[in-house]
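Please, structure for the following, as tokens.
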Amino acid sequence: MKRREFSLLTGGATVAAGALWSASALAQTKAKAKPETAAPESIKVVAGTDYVLLDPQAPVEAPAGKIEVVEFFWYNCPHCSAFEPLLAGWIKTLPKDIAFRRAPVAFRDEFVPQQRLYFALEAMGLVEKLHAKVFTAIHVEKLDLSKVAAITDWVVKQGVDKAKFTEQYNSFSVATKSTKAAQLQNAYKVEGVPALGVAGRFYVDGTLAKGMDRALKVVESLAAGIRSGK
């Protein structure tokens, strides 16, 4: 969904927005949202057409010898929710030199509670267990998880200790990570979500790649180019 073309509906559980990619591309991604289809083939890509070359480059956290790939997402975004199964399967196929991480965006202040939710889950080692369930809660169960009280109630219902979650949610570390995520989205000039950043040098989204399934293939090709020294 495009950065400038969204509005929260009643309850904040769904989103009305201009599509970041076409309806056909969304259907394509849903159809391929299985682990066995997640590994993309290498394709020929063109700067300005399939991806954007960043200047200046964005900061990276990956150690030397690793290629950082960042997914930019928002829990309330229906396209991010549709993309998640495909992405989860793709992550399992990544070679050892890829350092993958997620960055929840904050296009507005209202996004911050969900930013903190993600980083609190990360700090508690609960991303694998609960990340996809957040999307399901919002987009399937139609829950409003836009406010801290509702977020906390939902997390507790998943069997998480309330005091420990609250401590992490309000921690300096989570606040710092949320701020850095917002700075990173700006460094990559993120125009909508879901989107992908590669090595601080390349930006890919569904509009450029003509679908998020193909966006993963673009990322693979860019990573291959980095490995070969291009």
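Strands lie at 6-8, 15-17, 52-53, 67-73, 98-104, 195-198, 202-205. The longest strand covers residues 67-73.
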